[in-house]
Amino acid sequence: MKIHEYQAKTILARHGIPIPEGRPAFSPEEARKVAEEMGAQGYVVKAQVHAGGRGKAGGVKRASTLDEVEAAARTIMEKPLVTAQSGPEGKKVNRLLVEQAVPFKQELYLGITVDRSSAAPVLIMSTAGGMEIEEVAAKQPELILKETVHPLTGLVPFQCRNLNFSLGFGAGTIKELTQLLNQAYEVFMKYDCSLVEVNPLVLTEDDHFLALDAKINFDDNASYRHKELAELRDPDEEDPLEREASEFNLNYIRLDGNVGAMVNGAGLAMATMDLIKQAGAEPANFLDVGGGANVEMITAGFKIILGDSRVRAILINIFGGILRCDVLAQGVIEAAKTVKIQVPLIVRLQGTNVEEGRKMLMESGLDFQVAETINDAAKLVAAAVNA
Ligand code: ADP
Ligand code: MG
Questions:
Q1: C-beta 288 within 6 A of ligand 1
Q2: Cβ(273)–Cβ(249) under 8 Å?
Q3: Full-prediction pTM beyond 0.90?
Q4: For residue range 346-365, what is the model confidence (pLDDT) as tens digits?
Q5: Could you tell which of 41, 61, 205, 212 is best to mutate to test the pocket of ligand 1, judged by most ligand atoms within 8 Å of the CB?
Q6: How far lies 95's CA from each of 33, 78, 82, 197, in Å?
């Protein structure tokens, strides 16, 4: 689960990490009011969306007066914010963070995540913090410093000193940096995070550290341990089809193409997507209905595909094992009763109760094409969308 910058900053601050003064606002008028109450020398108005790269995309604006704050807020909220991470359609901005503008002399990068190869948390820091960090990581990897943390010992002081000196600082910053890294690590562990990122972490004119940006992602597998985090969820940031799918325990991921695909088993779903691409088309989604899918789940899954307006053809590729082909057929027929199928439907069924499943589909009056192999199915569906 992802949360907004202002929510992440609140969590960091609660654990002792210094952040600039700031408050969320939900409209340009409120942004003005918040700024007026804060009464700072200068302000930064920041779009709160679950996508990075806001600064470069015009989602972070400086303002000196209350009028400028309101105008900046209006410009940011006016249209969807398209960043390098938002996807081409961008993100609608419903919330802002109005923050005091802080002068600083250096922007650093700080991230904590799980390093899969060492199976341990890793602290990542760089002097090249700010808006170019992805490029730095790709072109000058030597500027990225790493300290792997042994989960049993936790972060130990020499690792903080290592980072401090490798960043080019003298002894004067050790105490504060060590404290800050421990606080960030505490947040990472306590909330079962997959990412705690502060970019930039700045060094102020008087040599103190301050978190100017914050990103926290939580590991959903541990969400049962953190009921208190549920209130931080922002449903506006979630894809409505993905949310619906999760309610039915379906593995659904939205993609950019126009071929709706319903498959059982993650491996078969991936192979199906590969073949769709090879045949010259693009999948609109990944949907693994799983082995134990019942009629309700199939119905829900098929309705989700039908509810996606971009879908121009549907491919059902089921290898009946634990999931029987007749159950699949019944689910498809149920869904088609409430949502009309207006695009070509290609069905490839094999395995348990395949004859019965096919017969049910044939007798249902649904219009569909039958494919014998996955390859044929992929070619038929590509021909349908490319027609
Ligand atoms: P993003 O990472 O999405 O681009 P940031 O919150 O990092 O958004 O903001 C982009 C840049 O704006 C930062 O790298 C920093 O230079 C500047 N910035 C952000 N917040 C402040 C602030 N409170 N005061 C001064 N500069 C800021
Ligand atoms: Mg940032």
A1: no
A2: no
A3: no
A4: 999 999 999 999 999 999 98
A5: 212
A6: 14, 12, 15, 20
